[in-house]
Automatic annotation (TrEMBL):
It comes from Megamonas hypermegale. Residues 286-478 form the Bacterial sugar transferase domain. It holds the Pfam family Bac_transf. One of its GO terms (molecular function) is phosphotransferase activity, for other substituted phosphate groups. Belongs to the bacterial sugar transferase family. It is a multi-pass membrane protein. One of its GO terms (biological process) is polysaccharide biosynthetic process. This is Putative colanic biosynthesis UDP-glucose lipid carrier transferase. GO terms for cellular component: plasma membrane. The chain crosses the membrane at residues 21-48, 60-77, 89-111, 117-136, 288-312. InterPro entries: Bact_transf (IPR003362), EPS_sugar_tfrase (IPR017475), Undecaprenyl-P_galact_Ptfrase (IPR017472). Keywords: Membrane, Transferase, Transmembrane, Transmembrane helix. The keyword Transferase applies. It is found in: Membrane.
Amino acid sequence: MNKSFSKNRISKMDSLTAYILPVLVSIGDYIAIIIAEAVAFYLCIFFMPKDFYMDIPKSYFYLWVPAVFIFFLFYAGTHKRMVPYWEKIKDIFCANFYSIIAAIFILYLIHEDITRISRLYVALLFIFSLIFLYSIRQIIISICNRLDILKEPVIFIGGGKVTEAVIKFYNNNNCFGIKVVGIIDDDFSSEYLKQRYPLFKGIDRAAEYIKKSNVKTVIIAKTRLDRNSLKELLTNIQFLVRNLAFIPNIIGTPIANLDVRRIYRDDIVLLNIKNNLAYMRNRVIKRIFDIIMGLIICIPAVPILILCYFWVKFDSRGPVFFNAKRIGKDGKEFTCYKFRSMYMNSDKILADYLAKNPEAKAEWDEFQKLHDFDPRVTNAGRIMRKTSLDELPQLLNVLKGEMSLVGPRPYLPREIGKMGEYYKIIISTVPGITGYWQVNGRSDVTFEGRLKMDNWYIYNWSVWMDMVLLFKTIKAVFFSKGAV
């Protein structure tokens, strides 16, 4: 507990992260844009007629376009470290969109003939700049985190589960990690923090510790502080740091769509919580997104569907498809299409197996799944479930409007009694092929855990979240992180 801060080392660390990281990210952005321009150009030449000619000035290719992109990316704050990955994707998308418009406008201002720039080139540049910007940034993040460099030095006030959750989030969610310099509290309740980080006793001495450390970022994660204690703490340390954040005691409240409104005269903060899926326009946007992305996914999925059809047909006796009833929007049942992955007498096989294996029965009672071995599953089914290929026919449910690409789990009618208070909110929207719980644990999550995650997704929905969850689903499938 009696540790001391290394002021000089922390000061140098903070200077490095404050100045080197934006430069490093900008270099990565420049490389990403140049590659995107080149790929878009050569693909455009390949797909256009042979007599097509497109001339892009070198100054425009190597200077103006990258400069415009880097300006908007920097202006959108995409170089900042402590930003969740889904917000980062949204910021990059918006910066990318404005950059394309600005680049075309600059081309017009420098009196270049914009009719020589193909619309296909502009569309391809938009798509590939998004891909390469995000990919190269993720490579930089991965390298920095692996080498444990360029992390933001942070002091936490609060030694409980909230601090633990914040640290785990920033170190495990595709963003630049944080360097925990120390944790200050009067009482440390988290064993995780006790085993890993320097602890300092006494919140009343927080200003003294922070001044000695020279750390410029402090997070107050002591949610049980009363108003006067919090005000006093903020007053004592605010002038010592550049970045001061505190976590209000609203844990469990939907926060993804939270708007902060300020009433300056009386120092009042108004937190406006929006239920996005309650707005008709957002339900229409989600439906359009499902149709467009569903049709795009169907193109490469057709040959895979055909192969899986014959694979299931010749692997075991029974129908190729398992068309089960599921709970849809407003509690209406619908037929959910899947490739059959179990033997025909699966209920009897399961009952016999659970009767002979009490450990498996306990696992079934908790998760409603068997993780290591399920005697009902066929040889083809084991592989298809591991890669989620058995759920590809649900694309038809998506196009019919019975399901969404992303949404809560399609629950069984027999599970209604177990859903409790979550039932009403879950049936307020259509279920999804994938969802928040599938990419944050998949079959490793308990039944109640799935309900909580589905509830969180519905309250916090945004189109950006759907895009991120689709991307993370692809990663989860390729790395076989549990079966859906």
